[in-house]
Amino acid sequence: MLGVWGYPPALKVPQDWGFRGLKRVSEHTRVMGLDIGEKRIGVALSDPLGIMAGALTVIERTTDEAAVKQIIDLARENEVERIVVGLPRSLDGSLGKQAQAVQSFVDLLKIRTQLSVVTWDERLSTVAAERTLLEVGMKRDKRKKRRDSLAAAFILQGYLDRERSNASGPNQDLS
Predict the structure, then answer these.
(1) How many CA atoms lie within 13 A of 165 on its CB side?
(2) Which CATH class is domain 25-167?
(3) Residue partners of 62: CB distance under 8 A and separation at least 6
(4) At residue 117, what are phi and psi to the nearest 5 degrees?
(5) What residues does 43 pair with on adjacent strands?
(6) Which of 141, 30, 27 is closest to 79 using CA atoms?
């Protein structure tokens, strides 16, 4: 009798098994995505295989130190190995005032944690999150609470998709 993935139930899935032939870094490779705003920080989390991103929570940003502590606690709690922070570039690709503020926050986060912290272009992620919430008919007060974490999920999903396409190489079939 074969199990769900075609292995006998008594056997464990090999360590190098991954989605569509991609290798996992470890048993629990999770990536956290952040959408940093002036008042709130949206938080998203990947699945253990690093395939899908999902909205997790919103952190109310009182001070940078308190926000960094909450992020590190969430990362530890969810066995995160990397943090992806959305960098709000202007449409022409330049870094404006908000991007510089986010970069300062990223610098503080890098000082406070040993995890890998990378930035990712987040252009229009909040707009996409807002449109998605409008399409599902969510009321205005609920949209405000969910928008930031959904924007973080959009940022993280873009990063995960790029990582998977880079890992597979140009000649590998991902269908």
Answers:
(1) 6
(2) alpha beta
(3) none
(4) -125, 120
(5) 34, 57
(6) 30
With tokens 């995890």, the residue in question is: 115
At residue 125, the 3 state secondary structure works out as helix
DSSP state of 89: B
Q: Cα torsion at 15, 17, 22, 24 (round to 10°)?
A: -30
Instruction: Please name every residue paired with 59 in a beta bridge, in sequence order, or none if there are none.
Output: 41
pLDDT single digits (tens) 36-52: 999 999 999 999 988 99
At 112, which helix (H) or strand (E)?
helix 97-112
Q: What is the distance between the alpha carbons of residues 20 and 51, in angstroms, rounded to a whole number? A: 11
Q: What is the model's pTM?
A: 0.73
Could you count the other beta carbons within 10 Å of the beta carbon of residue 136? 8
Residue 104: exposure state from Cβ atoms within 10 A (0-12, 13-18, ≥19): exposed
**What distance in Å separates the CA atoms of residue 28 and residue 56, rounded to the nearest whole number?**
17
**Is the distance from CB of 151 to CB of 137 less than 8 angstroms?**
no
pLDDT digits (tens, 9 = 90+) for 50-87: 899 999 999 999 999 999 999 999 999 999 999 999 99
